[in-house]
Design goal:
A hairpin with a 2-residue loop joins strand 1 and strand 2. The protein has a 4-stranded mixed sheet with strand order 1-2-3-4, covered by helices on one side. The two termini are about 20 Å apart. The protein has one domain. Helix 2 packs across helix 4. It is globular, with a radius of gyration of 12 Å. The chain is built from 4 helices and 4 strands; from the N terminus they run βββααβαα.
């Protein structure tokens, strides 16, 4: 299970409950949010889908504890294109 909760402006806590529960602090600017979904879904849904993307590629224990959402694209260049398509 993946849950995302707003901590403060542009900062979220994402909890991934698997064999080992992990907590992640993720920063997502409004501009990047709009780039990914055009404002058509909630911020939390963008984060849940982003973590689903990551979990298809690595275990939750390998995901950084704190990061800016665009960092995913540095590790996985297909991230933005994939996520934009998923959120359509």
């Amino acid at each position: 299970m993946i849950s995302a909760t707003l901590v403060n402006a542009d900062t979220y806590e994402v909890v991934v409950s698997q064999e080992v529960e992990t907590r992640h602090i993720v920063h997502m600017t409004q501009d990047y949010y709009r780039k990914l979904c055009g404002g058509t879904v909630t911020h939390e849904w963008v984060l849940v889908q982003s973590f689903k993307f990551l979990l298809e590629r690595e275990p939750n224990t390998a995901i950084l504890a704190e990061f800016d959402l665009p960092v995913i694209n540095r590790y996985f260049p297909e991230y933005e294109e994939t996520l934009i398509e998923r959120l359509r």
